[in-house]
Amino acid sequence: MAALACETREREASVMLELLTGAGLALAAGLNAWIPLVLLGALDRFTGLVELPAGWAWLSNEWVLLILVVLLVAEVIADKIPGFDHVNDVIQTVVRPTAGGLAFGSGTTATTVAVTDPAAFFASDQWVPVAIGAALALAVHLLKAAARPVVNAATFGLGAPVVSAAEDASSVALSFAALLVPLLVIVGIVVIVLVAIRVIRRRRRRRAERDAAARSPGSEPVA
Contact at 8 Å (CB) between 81 and 141? Predict the structure, then answer.
């Protein structure tokens, strides 16, 4: 009985790590669609840190990696150009959730340094992890897309490259944390929630200021 209970606890811990791995990769995809996919494929192909299952082995194909790297470079550049970053965010509304679904699905079924027992409970419903990953990535993407206009307006566009670089670095950090030390993903989730609260409060404050200015006698409507 004690052995069974110990095995159950180990299984539950393994499942939790798998979920954190998938969540971290999906959240990273919400910041930059290609970083977690490139890291997954590269670590599987060139190191022993990740072993992708047969269904996701295509991520480590050299041609797929080359295409992903080209797309990564294109997004890194586009996201740092004020004005064009907004266009890029519109396009990425489809791309980032898709990448998040792929990252979550491949990450939770891969064998990593921290996760040695692939998630058996995903086997019967393979669409579930993809859907979860897409939802997580979409949430982060919407937060990012909502915050960027505020940053551009406050800094006259000068802050776009700085914020974009910070987002890319965060995506890399989240991806590595998810694959190597999944428990650190909890810290990333807390940070994202705090940022979301701050962005929502700031947008509400700006909206209230615009409404107050519009109601002021003799004032012109604020764009």
Answer: no
Which of 64, 99, 126, 28 has the alpha carbon at shortest distance from 118? 126
**Rounded to an integer, what distance in angstroms lies between the CA atom of residue 80 and that of residue 83?**
9
Q: What is the pLDDT of residues 29-80, one digit of tens each?
A: 999 999 999 999 999 999 888 888 777 888 899 999 999 999 999 999 999 9
Q: In angstroms, rounded to a whole number, what is the distance separating the alpha carbons of residues 109 and 120?
A: 8
Tokens of 86: 């907004």
Q: Residue 111's CB: how many other CB atoms inside 10 A?
A: 16
- Spatial contact of 68 and 215, defined as CB atoms under 8 Å apart: no
Burial (CB < 10 A; 0-12, 13-18, 19+), residue 82, is: middle
CA angle 138, 136, 64 (to 5 degrees): 75
Q: How far apart are CA 58 and CA 66, in angstroms?
A: 12
Look-up of token digits 């979860």: 132
- Tell me the C-alpha to C-alpha distance, in Å, between residue 220 and each of 119, 150, 203: 59, 21, 21
In the structure encoding, which two tokens stand for residue 18, read together?
């798998």
Minimal CA–CA distance to 163: which of 72, 73, 86?
A: 86
Which phi and psi angles does 83 have, rounded to 5°?
90, -55
**Residue 112: strand, helix, or coil:** strand
pLDDT in tens, 82-140: 888 989 999 999 999 999 988 888 776 655 544 444 444 445 466 677 888 899 999 99
Asked if 145 contacts 48 with a C-beta cutoff of 8 angstroms, the reply is no
